[in-house]
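W.,

You were right to be curious about this one. When I first looked at the sequence I had no strong expectations either way, so I just let the prediction run and decided to look at it fresh. Below is the sequence, 526 residues in total, followed by the output.
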Amino acid sequence: MTGGGAVADVANGVGAAASGYSSEITFTVVMSCLMAASGGLIFGYDISITGGLTQMQSFLEKFFPDIWAKMNNAQQDAYCIFDSQVLTTFVSSLYLAGVFACLIAGHVTRKVGRRNSMLIGASLFFVGAILNCAAVNIAMLVIGRVLLGFAVGFTNQSAPVYLAEIAPTRWRGAFTSIFHFFLNVGMFVADLVNYRANTIPVWGWRLSLGVAVVPAAVILVGASFIPDTPNSLVLRGRLDDARASLRRIRGAGADVDAEMKDIVRAAEEDRRHQAGAFRRIVRREYRPYLVMAVAIPTFFELTGMIVVTLFTPLLFYTVGFSSQKAILGSIITDVVSLASIAVAALTVDRYGRRTLFMVGGGVLLVCLTGMAWTYGARLGSDGGKAMPRGYAVAVVALVCLYDAGFGISWGPLKWIIPSEIFPLEVRSAGQSMSEAISLTLTFVQTQSFLQMLCSFKFGAFAYNAAWVVVMTVFVFFFLPETKGVPIESLGAVWAQHWYWKRFVKPVAVAPAPATPHHKQADHGPA
């Protein structure tokens, strides 16, 4: 089997073990998930704020007057207006800092817990936002961006895992996808702020950068009142606190014994290994997890997400929109993204992860191919042609359709898959590795995309389209379905996969005791 049928087999084995799990969605779990998902706000806000700033008059006149001069030069190659190494350093410094933060955050999160790791990230983001808002030169901007990068590294590493560990099994995909939804809420708010700030001469850019303290403050306040995950508490030897946290999350009347036993068993497996988590994850028995830790974030970055999302205002400006209309176009695509992520949250636990990957892959391929043709045929290979209005509108439509396809597939699933597939003993390391790879590739792309657009022209979109084909085929053959399986029982899925079973040891599942609460079995939708 290619993986799609694995979950059906597993349901018969581990479903019984999960039958004691509560599927009740309590007020505590909802509030905890909302607070943890707010970690996506700071990342999303920063992505869109940066995209808007890079073509905002007040910002460019202050820090990049040469780019502003090129924007007003009618003879300038449209592909190369924003090709500036200093500008790309400003954009990409956050992601390089995030890489180092992720590698540190894995160890820190294991020692202090998921919640405290999020608080560290929010604190760093708060300070970085203040420094950026008060910047008087490029050096201050870059230092502020580095602090924001460390913040993103901590929150991106801890928040998705927090969500996966506290969510009810039946709705784990939906709850974890909230992180990506909040990321896009942050992008939407940032574009609204940019739209207003773009009309303010001289200091409008300070408004864009200064508002970043708001999502940081939301996390600082909110995360202080939510419990840490039972999984994290058990790892740190705090069993009584873990049981209390589990009861608080699942509800006072819930029977948490079965779930608690699974968490303790996973923690005992962790203690049986003396080697560090990073050394452990490269062992043969962890091969599928290592491959996915590398493949999922790598493919995510190669979808063209950076091309279409981070630089959306620049793409719209390139095809002839004014600066203000380019930001308005970004707002429209943000709305499309939010709607598509809501659809993904409602369907990911019903139809499964693999189905959304397949549908999204087809949509992304069509859109990237369409953009390559439109840019090539109507803007030309030298960027000297004027884009006809009808084709410029078609670019906006393709970007919106791309965002819809991305929003139902790779957008939320990039956070869902790595947060749920790793065994507890390597979960922090696996998530750290996955996010470090993602931020490294984001750094490389933000460093190179503007130059790539200038050099490759419309071929930049064809390049990503080819990778979409590769990643869709990979998912079809090598990623098993994980919907409806308890997070600490997912080893059985890999042990029954047609390829990965040669690496993963079969998981023995004890028969479920005959108790009345079997009627509330939490197997997920059929």
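Here's what jumped out at me. Residues 135 and 517 are 59 Å apart (CA to CA). And, maybe more interesting for your project: The radius of gyration is 23 Å.

Coffee later to discuss?

I.
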